[in-house]
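Design job #97: recover the sequence.
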């Protein structure tokens, strides 16, 4: 898969991710992760599995981070396309539209039953 195709694929997956988050569908969002995923939030231990993702993402909502915007900066993959990676920027907004946080991320996607799911999700605030 060429670089442009990879970026389009990942952008579409993240469009779904942000739509689920922004709609408050945390259950749907967690299903975009592998069952044994690792989420590495700043200032916290690594969270494992979908329950860990639920804990982190529900925490974001509880803190008033109402809207998430993700930008895909770069993508790549392994021979055969079973594993992809990408990096980029994120922005969280409060209900009133003000910027709550901005940072960067690096994720690894794993193909499971023909669908790319998040296997490792690491992110850090710029604040």
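Job complete. Output follows.
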């Amino acid at each position: 898969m060429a670089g442009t195709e990879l970026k389009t694929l990942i952008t579409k997956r993240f469009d779904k991710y942000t739509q689920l988050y922004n709609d408050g569908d945390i259950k749907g969002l967690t299903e975009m992760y592998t069952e044994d995923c690792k989420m590495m939030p700043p200032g916290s231990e690594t969270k494992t599995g979908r329950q860990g993702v639920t804990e982190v993402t529900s925490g974001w909502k509880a803190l008033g981070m109402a809207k998430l915007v993700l930008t895909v900066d770069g993508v790549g993959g392994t021979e055969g396309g079973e594993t992809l990676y990408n990096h980029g920027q994120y922005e969280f907004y409060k209900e009133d539209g003000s910027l709550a946080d901005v940072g960067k991320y690096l994720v690894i996607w794993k193909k499971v039953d023909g669908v790319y799911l998040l296997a490792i999700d690491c992110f850090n605030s710029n604040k």
